[in-house]
Amino acid sequence: MEPTLATTKSAEPRALLRLVKRFYEGFVFPRRSQVLATYLAPLIPDGAAVLDVGCGNGTVGRLIKQIKPSISIQGIEVMPRPACLIECSSFDGTAIPLPDLSVDLCLVVDVLHHTLNIEFLLREVVRVARYGVLIKDHVCESQTDRALLTFMDWVGNRANGVALPYNYQSKAEWDRLFSCCRLRVAAWNQSLPLYPRPFSVLFGRALHYVALLEKRPSSGHAADPQSGA
Fold this sequence. Notes:
By secondary structure, this protein is an alpha/beta fold. Among the domains are: 49-101, no CATH class; 146-207, no CATH class. It has helices at 5-40, 59-67, 118-128, 143-157, 171-180, 199-203, and strands at 49-53, 72-77, 88-90, 103-109, 129-138, 183-189, 208-215. The chain has a seven-stranded mixed β-sheet, sandwiched between helices. Helix 2 links the parallel strand 1 (49-53) and strand 2. It is globular. The N and C termini lie far apart (64 Å). 30% of the residues are buried.
């Protein structure tokens, strides 16, 4: 059958998306994953049980496990990949299907800005974690920041069908969210060498952060991440 104008037009974006996906997975994703694992792994206590929320294909989780083999790590994902590199189950993107305090630490890498209600998902993450949360996300302080983050998000995720609400937060907004969820910043790093020069000049800067957040107990004493209680 001869293609109609509509089908011809729809094929062009798909070809562009395939090209973007090949570029991202070939040149950006491997370095980004390795750098993230290098910065995240030291912040995870030895022997911790970790839940990787929105684990993607499990690359970052597997690299962290290689750096810190004493931990256990499992993932949950809205769209589980058939070839996920860590054990992964599905969830609806909002409610985490685990009991309260069922893991030591939740890992949330570039996930929160993909949800419309960051506070709701963050509260779910806090609910299932005994000790705290390890987050990698973005800091957006200007329209220029927003434009750059939007472009990076589109390049990295559009081809995989990931929801893109572009829900970026400023540092002050992140602080408010952490406070609302009874989290205390134990470590904060806004200098991550995710991209090689010259790309780091434009896309690096202070647009990315890694933070270790400890739960502030409402009563009693703080949970020990290695106690299993």
